[in-house]
Structure formats: structure tokens, C-alpha cells
Amino acid sequence: MRRLFDDELDELDNGFTEMGVLVSHTVQKAVAAFINHDRESAQQIIDEDHQINDREIELEAKSFEMIALYQPVTTDLREVVTILKAVSDLERAGDHARNIAHATIDVKGQHRAPEVESLLASMGEQTTEIVKQAIQAYVNKDDQAARDLVTINNHLATINDHILHEVYTQAQADSNVILAVMKYSAVAADLLRIADYMINVGEWIVYLKTGQIVELKLMNNSED
Hints:
By secondary structure, the protein is mostly helical. The protein contains eight helices and no strands. Keywords: Cytoplasm, Phosphate transport, Transport.
């Protein structure tokens, strides 16, 4: 029985990691599509969004099945619960990548604001990085790396502030870019939400390692 459980837990673990890599690639592709005005790539992201959703359903079903069948305790239970909870955060991050793809199509490459797009490119790189680091922290079961995700999140919040200021400036200067800058603000918000979901994943990694449920942003603020 123990060997069967370990085999299925390894399968569940690998499935979660694979889903994380898929989400990471999707976020990276969505950001590149938006910056490069690549509507074809954006449409592909939208068309393939079901792949992330399907993986979430499969992993959730597998997690519930293992809890019911094996009734795991302590560390084993925490690992299954971590995946059960964190998989929904990955799926929601994928939803925001899809939103960015929709924004790429809506803007249609007209009346762009290069200054804002440069900031969005930087924000997109940082967002892709936090997704990659969250997945790596899970693979390594590294709770300190999970806690360190907050630093990237803080950088993203700072870039977002710059974007909002630049968006306002651009809209005041040229009414032709109003549609574009509205989409820029929405994309920046999507990137922030993706990062927030990775912080959630980080919190579940801390739970996996320590058994404690923490709020990493609150802990970071208390240390400042």
C-alpha cells in the first residue's frame, strides 16, 4: 500500500510541476505576444487555454482520490493538500495570461505608446521570473525560496506605479492612445495578479515544509 501511495504521489507531484512549467511558458508567450503585437500567437494562447484548465481538473480529482483512498497523514497529507490548493492558483494565473492575449488582439497594433510598452516588457520579464522561481521552489521544496518571491512582487508593484503614471501622461498628451493605454493598465493589472497567485503558491510551499499557514506579504511588511 505504501509503495502504491508513493508512486501515485510522485505522479501527482510531477503533474503539478508540468502544469507549472506550462503556465510559465504561457505567461512568457502572452507577454511577448503583447509587446510584439503578435495577434496570431495571442490567438493560439486563447485556443490552448483549455490545456491548463484540463490539468487543473485532473490534478484536483487525483488529489481527492488519494485522500479518500489512502487517508494520508502529516507530511504526506500536506503534500497532497499543497497541490490541491496551489493548482487552482496556477490555473488562475493562466486565466490572466489569456486576458493578456485578448488585450493583444483588442489593441490591434494601432496608436501604441512605446514608453509604456518598455515598462510593460520589464514588468512581463519580472512576472515570468516569479512564476519560474515559484515552480522551482516547489520542485526543491524550498520554503526560503518561496518566501523570497515577495521581493520580486514588490518590484512589480513599483513598475506598475510607473506604468500608471506614464499611462496618465500619455493619455493627456494624445487622445489617440486612450484605447491602448487602457489596455496597458489592464495588462499591468493582469501581471500583478499573476504574481499574487505565485505568492499564494509560495505560501503553500511554506505550509508543505513547516505545517504553518502564513501570509507572506504581511510577514514581509512586518519586517520592513
